[in-house]
C-alpha cells in the first residue's frame, strides 16, 4: 500500500502525475469538485500551453476590500511570505476588477524561490511575468493595481474557493496547461495509489487503441 511510504516519497510520486490524473483520483475519493479550481488557468510563462507544471505546498493569502477596517492587517507585505518551492495562493474578494499581483511581486517571489503563484482573482503585467518566466495562474487579467481596491489581511489561514472546497495552508497545489488542482495533505497516499493504478490501465488502453481496438471495447475491457 502507498500509505506506508514516507511523506517525501509520496510528494515526489505525486509530482510525476498531471492535474487530470489527480482530479480523477479525487473524484473517486469523493473530494469536493475533484479538487478542481474551476476558472483558474495558466497565463504565464505561456497561455495554457507548453510543459510548465508547478507543484508545491500552499501559502494562502486572504485579501479584503481596501475599505475593510475590521479585518486584521499584516505586519509586512504579503509577498514577503513566499518560501522556496512553495506556491502562494491568493484569495481576492469576488467581483473585483483590479489586480492583486503584478511584476514587482513576481520579482520578489522569484528571489525568494517561489514555485509560482495562483490568484483566485486578477493579476497584471503579463509581459513582465512572461519575460521572467514565472508561472502565473489566475482567473483573469487587469490593468489596475490593488491600491484603493484591495489589501492583504491574513496569511496561512484557510480560504474558501467554492462551497465546501477550501484551500488550507500546507495543502498541495498543482498547476499545468489543463488547470489547477488542490490535494489535502491527508489525501496524498490515497491519491498517489489511485493515480498509479489508473496510469497502468491508461498505458494498456493507449497500447490497445494504437493497435486498432475500438475505444468502447478497450475501455470496457480494461477500465472495469
Structure report:
The protein is α/β, with parallel strands linked by helices. It has six helices and ten strands; from the N terminus they run ααβββαβαββββββαα. The protein has helices spanning 7-15, 19-28, 103-111, 126-132, 188-210, 215-222; strands at 41-44, 54-65, 87-91, 116-123, 136-141, 150-155, 159-162, 165-167, 172-176, 179-183. The strands form two sheets. Strands 1, 2, 3, 4, 5, 6, 9 and 10 form an eight-stranded mixed beta sheet that branches. The protein has a two-stranded antiparallel sheet with strand order 7-8. Helix 2 packs across helix 5 (188-210) and helix 5 (188-210) packs antiparallel against helix 6. It starts with 6 loop residues before the first helix and ends with a helix.
* Overall pLDDT: 94
Shape: elongated
Q: Count up the helices.
A: 6
Ends: how far apart?
Answer: 20 Å
Main sheet attributes: strand count, strand direction, barrel closure? 8 strands, mixed
Give the ordered list of helices and strands. Answer: HHEEEHEHEEEEEEHH
Radius of gyration: 19 Å
Give me the secondary-structure category.
Answer: alpha/beta
Weakly predicted, low-confidence segments: 1-6
How do the helices and strands line up, and which of them pair or pack?
Layout: H1 7-15, H2 19-28, E1 41-44, E2 54-65, E3 87-91, H3 103-111, E4 116-123, H4 126-132, E5 136-141, E6 150-155, E7 159-162, E8 165-167, E9 172-176, E10 179-183, H5 188-210, H6 215-222
Parallel strand pairs: 2-3, 3-4, 4-5
Antiparallel strand pairs: 1-5, 2-6, 2-9, 7-8, 9-10
Helix pairs in contact: 1-5, 2-5, 5-6
Amino acid at each position: 500500500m502507498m500509505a506506508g511510504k514516507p511523506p517525501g516519497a509520496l510528494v515526489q510520486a505525486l509530482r510525476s502525475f498531471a492535474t487530470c490524473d489527480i482530479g480523477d483520483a479525487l473524484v473517486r475519493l469523493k473530494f469536493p469538485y475533484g479538487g478542481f479550481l474551476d476558472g483558474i488557468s495558466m497565463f504565464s510563462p505561456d497561455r495554457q500551453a507548453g510543459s510548465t507544471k508547478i507543484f508545491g505546498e500552499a501559502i494562502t493569502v486572504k485579501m479584503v476590500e481596501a475599505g475593510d477596517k475590521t479585518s486584521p492587517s499584516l505586519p509586512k507585505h504579503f509577498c514577503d511570505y513566499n518560501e522556496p518551492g512553495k506556491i502562494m495562493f491568493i484569495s481576492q474578494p469576488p467581483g473585483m476588477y483590479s489586480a492583486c499581483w503584478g511584476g514587482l511581486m513576481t520579482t520578489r517571489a522569484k528571489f525568494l524561490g517561489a514555485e509560482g503563484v495562483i490568484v483566485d482573482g486578477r493579476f497584471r503585467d503579463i509581459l513582465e511575468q512572461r519575460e521572467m518566466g514565472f508561472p502565473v495562474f489566475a482567473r483573469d487579467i487587469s490593468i489596475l493595481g490593488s491600491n484603493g481596491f484591495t489589501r492583504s489581511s491574513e496569511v496561512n489561514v484557510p480560504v474558501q474557493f467554492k462551497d465546501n472546497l477550501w484551500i488550507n495552508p500546507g495543502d498541495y497545489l498543482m498547476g499545468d496547461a489543463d488547470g489547477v488542482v488542490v490535494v489535502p495533505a491527508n489525501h496524498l497516499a490515497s491519491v498517489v495509489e489511485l493515480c498509479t493504478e489508473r496510469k497502468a490501465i491508461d498505458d494498456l488502453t493507449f497500447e490497445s487503441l494504437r493497435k486498432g481496438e475500438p475505444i468502447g471495447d478497450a475501455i470496457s475491457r480494461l477500465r472495469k
